[in-house]
């Protein structure tokens, strides 16, 4: 009986444990932190051995295969020991993909991947049997075990891609690549780029890679490191023969001389970056033979993603917007770009080596006040102190929202778009977004 050790007792870990047990592995789950009660109950109910608040090495180093949570870096000594012993260390995506013959659409990128994955799933589910997993919702492994969908849309992070071996999506999407998580990649942007491109490393000419042809990082990397996949780029500024492009107000998508045209005038989501997300999702749908009418209707009635430029409430003619999912500078760039009124901007958190320079023109043009919400706000205060009349700092979401309420006048926006990770003051970006929304509702 092969021994499967799972490091990390979160959503992906528990899903993998259940799938592994079903497939005849001897399963052991180990988490250095506390495993949540709801997950403990699942493990106990399924008679799966587990431990938390420690890693017992002798129970781990005898594994045949290890599935590690994407949150654990390779630099950790336990992972180094596993590699030295030649024990296979994989991600949940890799493990679960062995047990399904489904069509897989894998979506990665620094920004836009959640919206693109959710939108793609929203279109496909109108006509296909399809699951949505990866970084979203129920784990991929659990869905492979319980649902057995014929198609999956997977939102995949670079950390998950670092631990794939044979994983090969039929259709891969790279939305964009901007510096993010560099703390995990020895502060080398090139390492992070290579990590994202692993999504296509096992693809053949019968598989497809959809990518942003306006993103110089992607285009240059492809030039110097060609892939086997059939390429389907999308662009807002170039004319694309095979792929998608914007022609005045219309998205035109061509695959094998078969063209469909989508008007952008009624897209549910606003902003240039959402035209790109719509192009990527529509290209996937066109490849999978979804009807044009279905694609168009789906783009027009899509509700968007929680914590991503989510309009919360209007109070005294001030619009409060929750963009807690903006955990890097580029995401906040899109948020500020889409602001069409003077904005009180709430920013801050765990800085991953951020360079804020690309935000300066928007801050000068649109931001009237900045509220720094982080455990350490020194860098933000130094960077933006001279650009706005009002800059304050706080460690509490409720206080940040009260300050914003005092500063904002009729017609303004209050935007939470942190440009940073959330772990200094919050459990995760969802917790941060929910606290913001609760604070707004309590005004």
TrEMBL record:
Q: Care to name a GO molecular-function term for this sequence?
A: ATP binding
- GO BP, one annotated term: regulation of cell shape
EC identifiers of the protein: 6.3.2.9
The entry's ATP-binding residues are 109-115
Q: In which pathway does it act?
A: Cell wall biogenesis; peptidoglycan biosynthesis
GO CC, sorted alphabetically, is: cytoplasm
**Protein localization:** Cytoplasm
Q: What class of enzyme is it?
A: ligase
- Sequence ranges assigned to domain Mur ligase central in this UniProt record: 107-285
Q: Which UniProt keywords apply?
A: ATP-binding, Cell cycle, Cell division, Cell shape, Cell wall biogenesis/degradation, Cytoplasm, Ligase, Nucleotide-binding, Peptidoglycan synthesis
| UniProt xrefs under Gene3D superfamilies | Mur ligase, C-terminal domain, Mur-like, catalytic domain, NAD(P)-binding Rossmann-like Domain
Reactions catalysed according to its record: UDP-N-acetyl-alpha-D-muramoyl-L-alanine + D-glutamate + ATP = UDP-N-acetyl-alpha-D-muramoyl-L-alanyl-D-glutamate + ADP + phosphate + H(+)
In this chain the Mur ligase C-terminal domain maps to: 307-420
Q: Which family does it belong to?
A: Belongs to the MurCDEF family.
List the NCBIfam families hit by this protein, alphabetically. Answer: murD (TIGR01087)
The protein's role, per its UniProt record: Cell wall formation. Catalyzes the addition of glutamate to the nucleotide precursor UDP-N-acetylmuramoyl-L-alanine (UMA).
Protein known as:
UDP-N-acetylmuramoylalanine--D-glutamate ligase
- Recorded source organism is Flaviramulus basaltis
* Lineage, highest ranks first: Bacteria, Pseudomonadati, Bacteroidota, Flavobacteriia, Flavobacteriales
């Amino acid at each position: 009986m092969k021994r499967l050790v799972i490091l990390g007792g979160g959503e992906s870990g528990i899903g993998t444990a259940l799938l592994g047990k079903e497939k005849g592995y001897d399963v052991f789950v180990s988490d250095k932190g506390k495993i949540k009660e709801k997950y403990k109950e699942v493990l106990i109910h399924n008679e799966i051995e587990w431990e938390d608040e420690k890693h017992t090495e002798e129970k781990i180093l005898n594994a045949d295969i290890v599935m590690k949570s994407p949150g654990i870096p390779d630099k950790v000594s336990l992972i180094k020991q596993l590699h030295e012993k030649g024990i296979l260390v994989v991600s949940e995506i890799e493990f679960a993909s062995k047990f399904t013959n489904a069509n897989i659409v894998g979506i990665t990128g620094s920004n836009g991947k959640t919206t693109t994955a959710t939108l793609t799933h929203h279109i496909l589910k109108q006509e296909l049997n399809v699951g949505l997993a990866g970084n979203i919702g129920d784990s991929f492994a659990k869905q492979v075990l319980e649902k057995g969908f014929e198609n999956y849309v997977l939102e995949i992070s670079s950390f998950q891609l670092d631990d794939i071996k044979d994983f090969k999506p039929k259709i891969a999407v790279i939305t964009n690549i901007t510096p993010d998580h560099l703390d995990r990649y020895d502060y080398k942007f090139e390492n992070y780029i290579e990590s994202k491109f692993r999504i296509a490393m096992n693809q053949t000419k019968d598989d497809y890679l959809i990518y942003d042809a306006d993103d110089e990082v992607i285009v240059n990397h492809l030039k110097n490191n060609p892939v086997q996949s059939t390429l389907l780029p999308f662009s807002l500024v170039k004319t694309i023969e095979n792929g998608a492009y914007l022609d005045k107000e219309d998205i035109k998508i061509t695959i094998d001389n078969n063209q469909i045209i989508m008007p952008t005038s009624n897209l549910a989501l606003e902003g240039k970056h959402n035209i790109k997300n719509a192009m990527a999702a529509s290209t996937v749908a066109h490849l999978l033979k979804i009807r044009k009418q279905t694609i168009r209707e789906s783009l027009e009635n899509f509700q968007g993603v929680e914590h991503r430029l989510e309009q919360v409430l209007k109070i005294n003619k001030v619009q409060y917007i929750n963009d807690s999912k903006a955990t890097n500078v580029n995401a906040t760039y899109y948020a500020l770009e889409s602001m069409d009124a003077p904005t009180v901007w709430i920013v801050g958190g765990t800085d991953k080596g951020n360079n804020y320079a690309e935000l300066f023109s928007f801050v000068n043009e649109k931001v009237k006040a900045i509220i720094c919400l982080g455990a350490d706000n020194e860098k933000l205060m130094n960077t933006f102190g001279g650009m706005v009349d009002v800059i304050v700092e706080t460690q509490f979401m409720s206080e940040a929202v009260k300050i914003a309420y005092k500063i904002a006048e009729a017609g303004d926006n209050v935007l939470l778009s942190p440009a940073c990770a959330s772990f200094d003051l919050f459990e995760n970006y969802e917790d941060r977004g929910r606290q913001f929304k609760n604070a707004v509702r309590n005004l």
